[in-house]
Amino acid sequence: MGLELYLDLLSQPCRAVYIFAKKNGIPFELRTVDLIKDGVSLCHPGWSAVVESRLTASSASCSHWGGRSAPQRCLCPGEPPEEGASLEGRGLHLEREVMFPVFLGEPVSPQTLAATLAELDVNLQLLEDEFLQNKAFLAGPHISLADLVAITELMHPVGAGCQVFEGRPKLAAWRNRVEAAVGEDLFREAHEIILKAKDCPPADPTTKQKLMPRILAII
């Protein structure tokens, strides 16, 4: 039986898995799921480990993805290079403030949005200073799983209309290198849904009523 990947490309970790598998030529059958309708959060702090543990073994020849090098394999947002430097839970996830309100057709309060964007700005600076530093990629001279996890996180606020890379030439250059390494077509394909998410119509009243308890539990 071949590899089956159950993915929702609105989810950051799902996009990272999708890009990794496609780029490394790992045969799989895509099973599209809808995590919102299933009542599951679009982000999960443990899913970056799934990317590595389930798929890296299938691309052992591509050592720069993290298959052989322990430092590269361990360097992921949430697994900091230095004590105290962590991106986990610090403003990259905008489901509560942007994506769910769009889905529900509800406005976002200016105070909530301002606080979220301020936290995002702090997070971006942390990514530059503590993770990227002066390297081409987060783990060194070659692209790694850390770059996929981080870029799919950053494309989430981009999909919400935030100009994440504006005024940050170092991050913008890194994003261009990641896109070039992945391939422009694959990068665009993986992020097509999230980049159109803010323009999607809200859920119909029946679906909204059915899912509201689950969404409120998440937010």
Automatic annotation (TrEMBL):
It comes from Cebus imitator (Panamanian white-faced capuchin). InterPro entries: Glutathione-S-Trfase_C-like (IPR010987), Glutathione-S-Trfase_C_sf (IPR036282), GST_C (IPR004046), GST_C_Theta (IPR040077), GST_Theta (IPR051369). Its EC number is 2.5.1.18. Residues 76-202 form the GST C-terminal domain. It is an enzyme of class 2 (transferase). Belongs to the GST superfamily. Theta family. GO terms for cellular component: cytoplasm. GO terms for molecular function: glutathione transferase activity. PROSITE patterns: GST_CTER (PS50405). This is glutathione transferase. Keywords: Cytoplasm, Transferase. It is found in: Cytoplasm.
